[in-house]
């Protein structure tokens, strides 16, 4: 009887150990296959490389990402074949045509100069192309195109502006907004580079609307080292990234509307966002149209969930104390309308 109890205890221990090792194997394999997704998430949350980056020097570790890429390519191919087969077997199905942004036959080689941190200053940046006769307004006409650049705040705002442009003036546009992005963490997402690689695709581009900064109260990491937040070097490097976006728009003869940030509920975060707002406003002065929105979205010159919209005091902020709700976006739309003139 004693031997039987010991035997069962031994078997249970082996079973638990086996389960534990199996869980470790599953978690390890998952991390191995999804290493790039984990790296992106870590950089998004912590603004630095994850500990897993140390494993990239090993070919076996990198092979996990190759397996993931092969799997996703096979999945996409299978999905495309399934759709094609379905369409072939249903000749009477109604064809749906998707309207996309007009693409120009312009190719552009993007060269990012290597600039030492100590040498970065406003004088080292090529002066933007001067604005036209109406520096205080954007002139749009039939056939013009508009691009929206920014983070989740732009993702939320852009649709209402796009709807207005299309309904009122038949102006086409594209929302390039991407959540959790900004100008400080180029490893996660590089907005200046994305803009330099993308804008030339769009024919008749006349306006670029930008809303960034909510994810940027961090240090900036460059090839030359890390730059601490709220320092002179940080402001210079941040301005440089702003100007790269503006310069690319001006190179294509498009104007820029740069939208400021609202007051934030958390005091420390609000203080940091106020600093970023000041850097942005000083940087874009005489180079783009800056629209401050903080006071328009508050009824007391500080954070408030309420503000006046269409002569009514209504809620304008999301529950997180950061984003805007539908009313808040409607208020910003009214400010944007004041800066656009349409000529038939």
- Find the count of extended strands (DSSP E, 2+ residues): 11
| Helix and strand sequence | HHHEEHEHEEEHEHEEEHE
CATH superfamily of the largest domain: SGNH hydrolase
Low-confidence stretches: 40-44, 82-88, 90-126
Q: For the record, what CATH class of the largest domain applies?
A: Alpha Beta
Count every helix, treating DSSP H or I runs of 4 or more residues as helices: 8
Beta-strand residue fraction: 5-15%
Q: Considering DSSP H and I runs of 4 or more, what fraction of the residues is helical?
A: 40-55%
**CA radius of gyration:** 26 Å
Give a short account of the largest sheet: 5 strands, parallel
Tell me which oligomeric state these chains represent: single chain
List keywords for this structure.
344 residues; alpha/beta; Rossmann fold; 2 domains; five-stranded parallel sheet; two-stranded parallel ribbon; elongated
Descriptive overview:
By secondary structure, the chain is α/β, with parallel strands linked by helices. The protein has 2 domains: 2-89, no CATH class; 117-343, SGNH hydrolase (Rossmann fold), CATH 3.40.50.1110. It contains 8 helices and 11 strands. The chain has helices at 2-33, 35-46, 59-89, 152-169, 191-198, 232-251, 267-284, 326-337, and strands at 138-141, 145-150, 172-175, 205-211, 220-222, 225-227, 255-259, 289-291, 306-309, 312-315, 340-343. The protein has a 5-stranded parallel beta sheet with strand order 3-2-4-7-8, sandwiched between helices. Strands 1-11 form a two-stranded parallel ribbon. Helix 4 (152-169) crosses helix 8, helix 5 packs parallel to helix 6 and helix 6 packs across helix 7. The protein is elongated and about 90 Å long. Residues 40-44, 82-88 and 90-126 have low confidence and may be disordered.
């Amino acid at each position: 009887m004693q031997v039987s109890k010991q035997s069962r205890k031994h078997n249970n221990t082996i079973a638990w150990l086996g389960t534990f090792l199996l869980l470790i194997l599953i978690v390890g394999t998952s991390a191995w296959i999804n290493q790039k997704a984990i790296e992106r998430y870590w950089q998004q949350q912590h603004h630095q490389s994850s500990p897993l980056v140390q494993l990239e020097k090993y070919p076996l570790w990198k092979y996990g990402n190759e397996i993931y890429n092969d799997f996703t390519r096979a999945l996409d191919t299978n999905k495309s074949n399934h759709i094609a087969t379905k369409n072939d077997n249903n000749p009477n199905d109604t064809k749906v045509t998707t309207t996309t942004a007009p693409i120009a036959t312009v190719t552009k080689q993007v060269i990012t100069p290597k600039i030492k941190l100590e040498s970065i200053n406003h004088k080292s940046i090529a002066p933007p192309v001067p604005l036209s006769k109406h520096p205080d307004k954007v002139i749009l006409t039939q056939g013009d195109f508009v691009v929206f650049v920014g983070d989740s705040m732009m993702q939320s705002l852009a649709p209402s502006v796009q709807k207005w442009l299309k309904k009122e003036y038949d102006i086409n546009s594209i929302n390039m907004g991407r959540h959790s992005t900004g100008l400080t963490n180029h490893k996660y997402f590089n907005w200046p580079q994305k803009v330099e690689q993308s804008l030339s695709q769009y024919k008749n581009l006349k306006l670029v609307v930008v809303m960034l900064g909510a994810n940027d109260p961090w240090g900036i990491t460059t090839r030359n080292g890390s730059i601490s937040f709220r320092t002179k070097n940080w402001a210079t490097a941040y301005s440089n990234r702003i100007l790269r976006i503006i310069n690319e728009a001006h190179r294509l003869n498009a104007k820029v509307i740069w939208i400021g940030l609202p007051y934030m509920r958390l005091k420390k975060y609000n203080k940091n966002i106020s600093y970023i707002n000041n850097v942005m406003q000083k940087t874009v002065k005489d180079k783009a149209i800056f629209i401050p929105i903080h006071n328009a979205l508050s009824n007391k010159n500080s954070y408030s969930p309420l503000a006046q919209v269409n002569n009514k005091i209504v809620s304008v902020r999301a529950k997180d104390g950061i984003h805007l709700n539908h009313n808040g976006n409607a208020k910003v739309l009214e400010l944007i309308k004041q800066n656009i003139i349409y000529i038939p």
